């Protein structure tokens, strides 16, 4: 706007005839001083400098959303299973006191071969070792590291029995079955291998099922699970509760009338349930409470309960079955005094109890109508049912002896927690990528790094109680990071709000600034062109 | 007066009796007391015990498990929770039931003694407790935060037997939510805590429609340890519901609840008035409508008794003079008490209990004796706001001691929200009639000032009021302005200020063993604060932006523009367009025209345009 037409400089000395433009007849203002032009340039420049160097950083600083640095790639690696390959190296010691060392070594080698031939799943590997013969103390010392001890002893025929109290497999063999040092295969070795495989078959299937349901890359994914096995495993995993170090057991006596109003639950638990809880104590802690609730009408009033009635039997609106406070999940065991029976299908027998997945068990106890007190003996059957249901609610495998089932439970739970924590990490990473405007507080980054440390430790110690503990911490930390409260609120701050706030101020301010800059730029270009023309004229002259 | 003493003694004996029976597992009792002005007070009381050893082993029988777990989890020694609504009309209804010990101010009130090493730990446990109770009772108790929590110093004493009651590790916290509306969703979880639910016994009479339709109601939950001499300590839960039903309103059929004026001949008139005639009626409401049946009042019969209840405690008692006849259903044994103003009913477990109270016969003498005369309370209290405007205000409490010869000593406690800033120096107490304030009235003051947005102010005053006198306790306060986001929805309604708690000290503590002789609460107040227009932030943004943009644009242009005379500047707007068009047309003419036009002629064509533009 301040540009002076080149002709105006020469209006005084050039005749008007030379001008062809119609507007040139205007009276032209006097030439502007170069210092004014320079000053105008400085003014515009300084405004722009203030805006760019002061305004912009302040705006950026005050409105930016804090996003802590997350190791996104590593997190995705974890969830894709690239960071950790869950391997459960199970050591199995062979105790063959009656065999020569040489013979035993040979048998071990052959059995290991047979095992490796049978096994198609790399994640679950059985490794045999020879335990030093005799000496109870030595045996118990090695037992700590091994998942199972095979005790070989000569006998009449080839038999295998699992010891119900210790993780020991007793195998007897006819003495002539010992393989010769040169034999490449042996019936005994194959037999031992197949026994081992059947003992650990369920564990293997469960772990491979867990891996397959998670987003593990295909090369780690074991194949060969039949659909029926998958279905039964899926049923079992949905039935079991989420892992927690502590469970809260609530025993409730419900009755639809006024009687009975008391029960000997304390002694009954002590007698029938406590031993099992003690066995489970390395993996889980339990707290127990009991209650008596009278006048609790069930949701279904029929005397014969069909299968579809079972889901509505629990009268959730009226029965005080609120979960206990504190972090531990609650498992409900309900004894309902009433004369109902369960008939699921016409030909099957009536039963007394049913299990509600991830929730607990209901046991229907029929008592004479005037019973005022339920004795310990009456409670024996309900509590034994509860105990067996507790195992399935905790996700314990069904086959094998108790110690084996428990050690299997540890491994399954570790794998489960590990996968859970990894997939939570993956979800968090994907969330952070998908929502660029979400804030990520440093506590989340902290939780993620803790999770990864513990995941690494868990992955390295898989199979033991240490691994379980680390996996548990990792899972808890991952959940905490994912459900960070301050992350959720930012999701709902829409962009329209920002426009509504910025536009009234920035619009009117920005227009003169930009127009000024554009005009000044145009004038500068014009001046340069003129100078260039003048220079050219001078050169011509 | 005689009757007054009789009823007083009966109450005392009743209380001491019920405390003595505390070792039994469970008992429940309903006391019905007709009140003047066709009102009926129904007091439901349920009490269940658990021995401390069973409690620690988590074996719950009569004691509700959900409550027990919360108490254990939050390390609570003693708990008191109140849900109340309505107003107790002490002028006509007299003294409060339970001497006011089982009621709270309007809304929700909670106080508890917690086991904690430090104040922070106590706060943490308090948070756990309020959140858990909030879930259990479907009430907004989780909104009891730091600003609504106080630590009373003088007003409360534990009711139970604590081995180390004065221990430094026991913290008393008190929280109040005056805005909370108590309704049916609070009653349902309350009934779930009872061993017989609402299925048998007196609890069958409890119905949300009737309870929350009453003129005044209060639900109380008290948990306290009781150690009988020589026995094992028990933890006692006492659930109490007191309600004052309007008999007229309760008798309205449920399918036709709209009140209609009765026809003229059915109006109860006071015939003793000299102007009473066929077309003039002075309503005789004092003794009117004193005939009712249980099923009319509560909408249903009482279904038997709870089989767990202690058989030595009669489940229903009625406090009317013995001269009145009461009809009950079969299988119910009526026992008149020695005090001549109350009777109790023994009910067999499977009977439906119905009670008919016919209207007293027309004999004048009987009419005046139809009701037990209400006991006079030890103190009347009323609280109200004074002053005007949005900036300052005052609070005035009128305390009246009705007794002709006994002095009353009490503690007056206010827990005020932080946005009411008290001027403590303006606090004064004066006896009615005298102009200046009387320094001897206020014995002791405890004041904990508010911190903005962190805690409310707490004021506890120990006062003494001489016999038969009225005292005005006043103080001024300033209203602070809240932040935009701190206003609740419907901010123009005002902010509820919790009831003041008045605890009348028991002079003779050895007699009944209680700290407070009588408790009462004033009504809540509604404080209106300056409320902004809530579209304000956007208005402010637009307004300031416009102002800044105007100022900036002007300043920027002044600094950047070059000023020239009007005829020297470039043409702008329409004129520019016009001249451009003209030049274009001129150019066309020049091309297609005769071609012999000289340069001068062309100039002549353009000249008038310039002249025009100058005009």
Automatic annotation (TrEMBL), chain A:
Pathway: Glycolipid biosynthesis; glycosylphosphatidylinositol-anchor biosynthesis
Pfam families named among the record's database cross-references: PIG-S
Keyword Manganese: no
Membrane topology qualifier: Multi-pass membrane protein
Annotated GO CC locations: GPI-anchor transamidase complex
TM ranges: 42-60, 499-521
Subcellular location: Endoplasmic reticulum membrane
Main location: endoplasmic reticulum
Biological processes per GO annotation: attachment of GPI anchor to protein; GPI anchor biosynthetic process
Keywords from the named record: Endoplasmic reticulum, Glycoprotein, GPI-anchor biosynthesis, Membrane, Transmembrane, Transmembrane helix
InterPro entries from the UniProt entry: PtdIno-glycan_biosynth_class_S
Disordered: annotated segments: 1-34
The keyword Glycoprotein is assigned to this record: yes
Biased composition range(s): Polar residues: 1-11
Family affiliation: Belongs to the PIGS family.
UniProt-recorded name of the protein: Phosphatidylinositol-glycan biosynthesis class S protein
Organism: Podospora fimiseda
TrEMBL record, chain B:
Membrane-spanning ranges: 536-556
Gene Ontology CC: GPI-anchor transamidase complex
Coiled coil: none
InterPro entries, alphabetized: PIG-T (IPR007245)
Keywords: Membrane, Signal, Transmembrane, Transmembrane helix
Signal sequence, renumbered to the chain: 1-20
Biased composition regions of type Basic and acidic residues, renumbered to the chain: 597-615
Positions of the UniProt region annotated as Disordered: 596-615
Transmembrane keyword on record: yes
Pfam families membership: Gpi16
Protein name (record): GPI transamidase component PIG-T
Source organism of this protein record: Podospora fimiseda
